[in-house]
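User: I'm putting together a teaching handout on how sequence relates to shape, and I'd like one worked example. Could you take Transcript variant X1 from Nothobranchius furzeri, show the sequence you're using, and then write out its predicted structure as tokens right after it?

Assistant: Happy to. First the sequence, then the structure tokens directly below it.
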Amino acid sequence: MDPNPSKRLRTTDRGDGTGGGGEEEEERAVDVSIIMPVFNASCWLDECLQAVLHQDFLGSMELSVFDDASTDDSRTVVEGWRTRLEERGFSVVVSGHDSPQPRGVGYAKNKAVSQSRGQYLCFQDADDIMLPQRVRLQYEASLLHHNSLIGCRVQRQPEGSTERYTRWINSLTQDQLFTQVYTSHGPTVVMPTWFCSRRLFLTVRPFDEGGKGVPEDLLFFYQLLRQGCGLFRVDRCLLVYRYHEKATTHSVTEKTIWKLRVDFLQERVLSQWEKFTIWNAGKQGRMLYRSLNPINQKKVRCFCDVDENKIQKGFYTYEESKERPKPKIPVLHYRDATGPFVICVKLDMTGGILEENLNSLQLKEGADYYHFN
């Protein structure tokens, strides 16, 4: 890798979202493009770009920014960093559009990728802060795991926000990156930490451009797994992951996420099982049962639980069913139930009791049970 890469000349957008104009640019690809969609991020950009500037990666780098119709001075702030970044050896391309409405984060990411030239893509949210080692360590991991999506551990800011979610991100084992993809937390390799080869990105698909309310990261993540791609996490904290009420993730409804998760569970797991048990006879377990297609509903052997009140009732009646008589599913104590299991109890919410119960049955995650919670 050339420690002093020559700069590729790129120009800012003419306002039509098509990228640069008349200047010639080198055809040679850079090693890593930092992909940054921007929408009204002015208050965070200085801190974000300062961190980009301080990356200790010695290869050639590019910053590719697409501004999704910001109404603040985001574009001006980014342009203010151009000289410093180019002096550091970065190629810089900044474009965007000035439509009355933003077209969504999926659209902005796709545009930032399409105008970039990196052999590897490092996705960076404008409100987050990458630590100095991020590009280097994830690039090195990508060379070893070339067909994998690479993530890392994170530090949440403000400290203590989304405590359970942050603990989950950072504590997943390599196997659990695959087995816990059905949980409500979303992608096990969380989007703000994504790093991958351009070849992998093009193999999967562009991001969904449906706009506000579309979980473009989860849709891409599930498609990546369908394509047989791998997952890997660098077990170092390489990103300060900011939590705030304006984050785009808040626009996605639980109903949308739920349906995607159920469909993926049926496709990847339940289609392989002849019978299974839903672990939780309460609201979440019954909701999963009602969401299954008729074929998989008939595969449900029983519900299991630890709540004596639910167990004493003996069964759950599916009142919404058009079948006559209406299906009645037995409710058993978990020790009397037979696997495999779909666990519909929230992780990290029972003081370790759920985990102890699973361990007592000597069950293996990813074979005897999957979490769906």
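A couple of points you could highlight for students: The chain has two domains: 32-252, 269-371. The first strand starts at residue 32 and ends at 38.
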